[in-house]
């Protein structure tokens, strides 16, 4: 019996948004090829751009990137 539940997983990387997406696809193995990013009309937490991450019709998280103050970082947050 597991006593731990991951309800939020977040990380940041210096990889490009495209390379980050490809990395997520690898982590999610069997369903990874179904992961899509859909651009949002605004940034997030100081990032200039953001995109919803989904598998099929299910929203699973957010990717944010861009902006001089972010110094090349890409932020990914997967909700539980």
TrEMBL record:
It comes from the Bacteria. This is Uncharacterized protein. It comes from Herbaspirillum huttiense. The lineage of its organism: Bacteria, Pseudomonadati, Pseudomonadota, Betaproteobacteria, Burkholderiales.
């Amino acid at each position: 019996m597991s006593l731990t539940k991951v309800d939020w997983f977040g990380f940041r990387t210096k990889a490009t948004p495209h390379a980050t997406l490809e990395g997520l696809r690898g982590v999610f193995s069997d369903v990874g090829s179904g992961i899509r990013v859909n651009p949002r009309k605004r940034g997030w937490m100081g990032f200039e751009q953001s995109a919803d991450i989904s598998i099929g019709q299910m929203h699973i998280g957010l990717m944010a990137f861009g902006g001089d103050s972010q110094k090349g970082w890409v932020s990914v947050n997967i909700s539980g």
